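Reviewer 2 asked us to include a model.

Predict the structure of this chain.
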Amino acid sequence: MTLNTTLKTLFASAVAVFALTACDNASNTNAAAAKDSVALLKEKGVIRIGAFGDKPPFGYVDANGKNQGFDVEIAKEIANDLFGSPDKIEFVLTEAANRVEYLKSNKVDLILANFTQTPSRAEVVDFASPYMVVALGVVSPKNAPITDIAQLKGQTLLVNKGTTADAYFSKNHPEITLLKFDQNTETFDALKDGRGVALAHDNALLWAWAKENPNFDVAIGNLGPQENIAPAVQKGDKALLDFINKEIADLKANGKLKAAYQKTLVPVYGEKEDLLAK
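Predicted model (structure tokens):
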């Protein structure tokens, strides 16, 4: 009887210890789970941001090895509000094709790489509020400006194959003859040579080109549906998404987004502040 009682006591003690240990472990696990991604970033003291390394003026590495550009300016503002310093960033250089994959594979916490928001991408990543918008534009000679689409009826319009401009005019304006080229240089050379009365492309690109070619003007600056450029986070990362949404709203309200635009994009595109998302 005494032996049985002793064994029962030892067993009960072991069960109690196991239960306490399990509770402690569960408590620790729950506590870790309760920490959202923003809190974890603050603990690490750095945020990994995917950015372009060779796409000026949005993201590029300068001769001194420093990340520069419009997206980089926004990234620094985010880091400054997150950590109190604009330097707490690990820039991860990305290409257009791997932006989604870098988020899905957890190589970065945030993408800031001139990322166009599309329905298919939104299925696999979460986009924050946009900070820039783009649309189609039409550039033409200053001495023969095309200011209205109706002027293009029966005329030749230059476009790049497979672009948004190609798709838009092919679908919506069969009355316009399209002359298509593979490369941008071919298309712009054709405009200079007079092989078309105008050229359609992304408006941001056209404004930059017209600035370098003052005999031409983007007389139609916004055509077709606008597309948003926005930051993106991993799918389901609500904490970081909410933080970035608030950051973009604050940068718009306090004028810092406009200041970043004037610093990095105005020298290239000129005073075209309608590129900024409202």
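The two ends are 83 Å apart (CA to CA). The chain has two domains: 40-131+230-269, 134-227. We have added this to the supplementary material.
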